[in-house]
User: Which sequence fits this backbone?
C-alpha cells in the first residue's frame, strides 16, 4: 500500500474541502507536516484510520464531534452536513480510492453519534469500478489490527513493546511475516480430517471404526490439554509482565536498586549454573545409556585374556610359527638350516611336529583381533570411568555452585526485606508472591506438556495401526487415503511453520539489533526470544547478559526500531514469496507518525528519523515546530517529497500569530484573532 | 530456510510429500491466504478444504 492523496470534507477542525498530495518515490519517500499543539496532527492521523476502519483513537477527545464546530453551528436545525475522508492509494498495481462519509442531520446543539459508510473504487488501466465488500477488501490490504504498526502516535508507541500488549501484537507480526495463514491451515486441517473420518467410521468395519474412535478420543484429549495450556501461557505472560514491572521499580529505587542489581546478576549466574549442570547431567545420562555396559566388561575381558593365554601356553592358539610356512619347508624338502627333509628322517619328523604346533593364519588373525579388542575394551572402559568420574565431580561442583547462588539470593532477599522503606517491603512482598505464582504456573504447564506428548504418541500409535487395518469397502479405503494425505500435509505444514518461524525470528532479531544500535549510544541490545517476545539486555563482564530496566525513551526507541525492522522485513518477505503462496507488494506499508519522536532527546530524534527514512517505503511525519526543525529537518529534508503546515486559525485574541520558517521562507503557523477556530492544511514545499 | 531439528529446507519438506499431497498443500495455502482477513470464514474454509481433498484424492 502506497498513499497518494487525502481529501477531507468538514472533518473535525478541517473546515470545508481540503486535500493534500502524499505521493512519494523511492528516493523521496517522506511527507513532512508541521503543526502546533491542537492544530490537528492527531486528527489528521485519525483521518486515515477513520477512512479505512471507521475508528478514531482513544486519545482523540470529543470523538462524537466529527463535524467542524463552525460548520455545525452555522447549519440550521434540520439541516444536513456532509463529512468525509477520502484516501487515494496504490496497491499491487491497482489504484484505489477509499471514501468514508457520513450525512449528519442537525437536531440539537450537541453532535451525537453517527454511522458512516465506506465506498471503495479500484481502477486499473483507466477504468474505475466500485468494489463490492469494501471493508473486507481494506482488511485484505491492511488488516485493522496491523494498522497499529503503521499509523501511530509516537508518544504512545512504547506500548507496542510492553509484554502484555506484545502477546497481542505477536500474532500480527506473524501475519506480516507470512506465517499466519500456515498457522490457520494447521487449525483447520484437523477439522477436515474429522469430516473425512466420518466416512471411515461409517464404512470401515469394526476394526477400523474402533481404531478411528480411539484416535479421536486421544486427539480430543490433546486439544483440551492444549487449550488449558494456552490459558496458563496467557496467565504466565501477565504474571511475568507484572513481575518485570515490580523488578523495574526495585531497580530504580535508590536504596533497593544496588541490591536488586546484585540479585539480577546472581540470578543470571544461577540460570547459567543450572544450565551447565543440566548439560553435564544430560551428557552423563547419555554416556551411561550408550556405553554403560562397559562397566561390566572389565572382569569379562580379563577372563577372556586369561583363557586365551592358557590356550596359547598349551599351543592351542597360534604359535610364533605359521603352519603355511612349515608346510612350504616340507614341500621344498629343505629346512631353513639347510638340512634336507626326507620322509622318515628325524629332521623331517621334527619339522612335521612343528607343523602340528604352528597356527593357521586365519586363527592367528582372529586371535590378534580378539587380543586387540580385549585391550581396547579395557582402554575404553578406563576412559569411560575417568569421564564419568570427571562428570560426577563437575556435577557436584555445579550443584554446590547452585546451592551457593541460591544461598546468596536468600541473603539478598533478607537484605532487601530488612531495608526500612515500607515501599520496598510492599514491592518485595509482591515480587515473592508473583514468583511463587509463576513457578506454580510453570510446573502446571510442564505437567500439561507431558500429558500432551503422551496423547500425541498414542495418536501416532493408533494411526500406524489404522494404516494396516482391514477396511470393509472402497469408500472406507478412499476415506483412509484422504485422511493419510491430510495428515501428511499437516506434518509438512508444521515443519514449514517451524522453518519459517525460526528464519523470520532470526532475521527480525538481526534487523532490530541493527536499527537499535544505529540509534542508541547505550551498550544495550534488543533480543527476540524463540516465541517472538522482545527484551532489552546488556552484556556483563563475565559474558552473561542482564535485562535492562527500560525508561520511556528507551521503550520509544525500541518500539520505533521494532516498527522499522518489521516494516523492512515485511517488504523483503513479500518480495521473496513465490508461486501460489504469494501476494506481490503486500508487504509494503506506509508509516504515518503523529508526535513522531515523542519525548526523545534531540540526538535520538535525529537518529530515529535517519533510520526510519531509510527503512520505511513511505513515511508521513507529523511534527511540532520544536520537534521537526533543526537536525530532524536536516536528516529528513533530502527524503521529503511534500512538505506542509497545519495552519491553525484561532479565535484567541490574546496571543500573537506565529510563523514557521521552512527552507528559507516564512509561512503562517498560527493565525490568532480569527473569527472561527479551524485548521487549513497547506502545502509549502516539494 | 532450514528446520533446526532436521536441517531440512522448506523445499525439501515439500519434495518429501507424494504428488497428491504436494498439490493439496499448495491449494490449502492458497485458500488460507485468500481467507486470512475475512471474519467468520472458518467454517467455510473447512468446507472448502474438505472439497479440495476430495477433488485431489479421488
Assistant:
Amino acid at each position: 500500500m502506497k498513499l497518494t492523496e487525502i481529501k477531507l470534507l468538514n472533518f473535525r477542525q478541517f473546515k470545508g474541502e481540503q486535500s493534500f498530495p502524499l505521493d512519494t518515490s523511492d528516493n523521496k519517500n517522506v511527507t513532512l507536516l508541521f503543526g502546533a499543539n491542537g492544530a490537528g496532527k492527531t486528527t489528521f492521523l485519525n483521518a486515515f484510520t477513520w477512512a479505512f476502519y471507521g475508528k478514531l483513537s482513544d486519545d482523540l477527545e470529543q470523538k462524537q464531534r466529527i463535524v467542524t464546530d463552525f460548520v455545525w453551528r452555522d447549519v440550521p436545525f434540520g439541516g444536513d452536513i456532509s463529512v468525509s475522508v477520502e484516501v487515494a492509494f496504490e496497491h499491487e498495481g491497482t489504484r484505489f480510492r477509499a471514501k468514508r462519509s457520513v450525512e449528519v442531520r442537525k437536531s440539537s446543539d450537541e453532535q451525537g453519534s453517527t454511522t458512516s459508510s465506506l465506498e471503495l473504487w479500484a481502477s486499473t488501466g483507466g477504468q474505475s469500478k466500485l468494489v463490492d465488500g469494501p471493508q473486507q477488501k481494506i482488511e485484505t490490504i491492511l488488516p485493522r489490527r496491523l494498522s497499529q504498526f503503521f499509523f501511530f502516535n509516537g508518544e504512545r508507541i512504547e506500548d507496542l513493546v510492553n509484554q502484555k500488549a506484545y502477546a497481542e501484537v505477536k500474532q500480527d507480526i506473524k501475519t506480516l511475516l507470512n506465517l499466519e495463514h500456515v498457522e490457520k491451515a494447521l487449525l483447520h486441517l484437523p477439522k477436515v480430517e474429522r469430516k473425512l473420518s466420518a466416512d471411515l467410521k461409517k464404512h470401515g468395519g469394526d476394526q477400523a471404526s474402533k481404531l478411528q474412535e480411539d484416535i479421536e478420543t486421544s486427539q480430543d484429549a490433546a486439544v483440551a490439554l492444549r487449550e488449558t495450556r494456552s490459558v496458563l501461557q496467557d496467565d504466565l505472560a501477565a504474571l511475568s509482565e507484572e513481575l518485570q514491572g515490580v523488578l523495574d521499580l526495585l531497580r530504580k529505587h535508590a536504596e533497593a536498586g544496588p541490591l536488586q542489581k546484585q540479585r539480577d546478576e546472581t540470578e543470571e549466574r544461577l540460570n547459567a549454573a543450572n544450565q551447565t549442570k543440566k548439560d553435564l547431567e544430560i551428557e552423563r545420562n547419555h554416556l551411561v545409556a550408550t556405553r554403560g555396559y562397559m562397566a561390566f566388561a572389565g572382569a569379562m575381558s580379563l577372563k577372556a585374556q586369561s583363557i586365551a593365554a592358557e590356550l596359547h601356553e598349551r599351543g592351542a592358539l597360534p604359535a610364533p610359527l605359521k603352519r603355511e610356512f612349515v608346510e612350504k619347508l616340507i614341500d621344498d624338502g629343505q629346512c631353513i638350516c639347510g638340512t634336507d627333509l626326507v620322509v622318515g628322517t628325524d629332521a623331517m619328523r621334527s619339522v612335521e611336529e612343528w607343523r602340528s604346533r604352528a597356527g593357521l593364519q586365519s586363527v592367528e588373525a582372529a586371535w590378534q583381533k580378539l587380543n586387540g579388542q580385549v585391550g581396547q575394551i579395557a582402554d575404553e572402559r578406563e576412559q569411560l570411568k575417568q569421564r564419568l568420574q570427571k562428570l560426577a565431580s563437575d556435577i557436584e561442583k555445579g550443584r554446590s555452585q547452585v546451592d551457593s547462588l541460591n544461598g546468596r539470593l536468600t541473603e539478598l532477599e533478607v537484605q532487601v526485606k530488612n531495608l526500612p522503606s515500607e515501599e520496598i517491603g510492599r514491592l518485595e512482598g509482591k515480587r515473592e508472591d508473583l514468583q511463587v505464582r509463576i513457578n506454580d504456573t510453570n510446573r502446571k504447564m510442564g505437567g500439561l506438556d507431558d500429558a500432551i506428548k503422551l496423547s500425541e504418541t498414542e495418536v501416532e500409535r493408533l494411526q500406524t495401526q489404522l494404516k494396516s487395518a482391514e477396511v470393509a469397502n472402497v469408500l472406507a479405503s478412499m476415506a483412509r487415503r484422504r485422511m493419510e494425505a491430510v495428515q501428511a500435509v499437516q506434518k509438512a505444514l508444521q515443519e514449514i511453520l517451524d522453518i519459517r518461524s525460526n528464519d523470520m525470528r532470526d532475521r527480525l532479531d538481526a534487523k532490530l539489533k541493527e536499527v537499535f544500535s544505529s540509534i542508541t549510544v547505550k551498550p544495550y541490545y534488543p533480543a527476540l526470544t524463540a516465541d517472538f517476545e522482545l527484551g532489552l539486555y546488556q552484556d556483563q563482564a563475565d559474558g552473561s547478559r542482564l535485562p535492562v530496566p527500560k525508561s520511556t525513551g528507551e521503550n520509544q526507541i525500541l518500539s520505533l526500531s521494532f516498527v522499522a525492522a518489521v516494516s523492512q522485513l515485511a517488504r523483503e518477505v513479500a518480495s521473496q514469496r513465490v508461486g501460489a503462496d504469494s501476494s506481490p507488494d503486500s508487504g509494503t506499508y506506509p508509516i504515518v507518525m503523529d508526535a513522531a519522536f515523542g519525548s526523545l532527546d534531540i540526538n535520538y530524534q535525529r537518529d530515529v528519523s535517519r533510520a526510519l527514512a531509510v527503512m520505511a517505503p513511505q513515511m508521513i511525519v507529523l511534527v511540532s515546530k520544536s520537534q521537526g526543525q533543526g537536525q530532524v529537518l536536516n536528516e529528513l529534508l533530502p527524503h521529503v517529497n511534500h512538505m506542509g503546515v497545519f495552519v491553525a486559525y484561532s479565535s484567541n485574541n490574546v496571543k500573537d500569530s506565529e510563523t514557521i520558517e521552512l527552507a528559507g521562507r516564512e509561512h503562517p503557523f498560527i493565525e490568532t484573532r480569527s473569527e472561527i477556530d479551524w485548521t487549513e492544511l497547506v502545502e509549502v514545499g516539494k | 530456510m532450514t528446520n533446526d531439528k532436521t536441517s531440512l529446507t522448506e523445499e525439501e519438506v515439500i519434495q518429501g510429500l507424494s504428488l497428491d499431497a504436494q498439490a493439496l498443500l499448495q491449494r490449502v495455502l492458497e485458500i488460507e491466504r485468500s481467507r486470512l482477513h475475512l471474519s467468520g470464514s472458518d467454517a467455510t474454509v473447512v468446507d472448502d478444504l474438505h472439497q479440495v481433498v476430495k477433488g485431489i484424492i479421488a
